[in-house]
Amino acid sequence: MKDPSTENLNPPLTEAQVIANLRQTEDFSDQYYAAWWLGRMRSRHPETIPLLLTALDPLHGNPIHNERRAVALNAIRALGILQATNAEEKLRILLKKNDYSIREESARSLGMIQAQSAVLDLCELLSGGPEETEQIQPGSAKLKEPYESVLEALGAIGVASRSVIIIITPFTKHSRPLIRASACRALLILTGDQKWAPPLIELLQHDDPLIRRGVLLDLGATGWMPALPAIQAAAIENSLKLVALRGLAEKSEDTCVLDAMDGLL
Asked: What's the CATH code of the domain at 201?
């Protein structure tokens, strides 16, 4: 399949051409690129959402066609980016699928859509006890569920009920740093309680650069302004710092964030 991140040597496709590519069903490579393009370009074409929703249908086949699955995963991502609220029901159904990546991307997109109807479904994915949430899938480094994306989704949706807080809190003690960070991120957003911020600041000093990068983005997503100095000083590339600072800027009118962004450009 084509790599969406590489530049095409041919003239850029028009939105109409991309729509046509997603509509056809013979060239999966064109469909794959089209589903990515429509999300990346924030398409508002009237056929965009219906075609992306149709692209999810093969996920209900048995077995699932591998190339159609790849197209569908891009469609799930695009629906989240486009905040397609009419995709909520289909995405909630996909949370039940026996496919880790499908559940992961569906949870992430439901968070981007801020789908309150999905809160109970997402909480169900977190409902195992401490031993169960630490279990690794046979032959894989993956855990039973995509806990990071589920926790982040609950934070983004913003339903701060007692039951949601109770089910998220144990994940602040999880053995995996990025899961702990996702839980602290969600709780800081939902409760506004600053006690969840220090663990994030501490993880920003982690030896693993991948963990530092993930936590940096978590801090930006919380909108917690006292994190500004830590974000600026983090041992992470400026391009990611700008993404984190943009997250702060979207939730604050403090011009210090814009000044910090200017200083990195």
From this structure: 1.25.10
pLDDT at 7: 52
Gap between the Cα atoms of 93 and 109, Å rounded? 13
20-59 per-position pLDDT tens digit: 999 999 999 999 999 999 999 999 999 999 999 999 999 9
* Domains identified in the chain, total number: 1
Tell me the whole-structure pTM to 2 decimals.
0.92
CA distances for 182 relative to 98, 119, 152, 165, angstroms: 23, 16, 6, 13
* Residue-number span of the structural domain to which 212 is assigned: 193-265
DSSP secondary structure of 158-187: T---HHHHHHHGGGGG-SSHHHHHHHHHHH
Q: 136 by DSSP, 3-state: which? A: strand
Radius of gyration of the chain (CA): 19
Residue (of 99, 195, 143) closest to 183 by Cα position: 195
Place of tokens 């990025």: 178
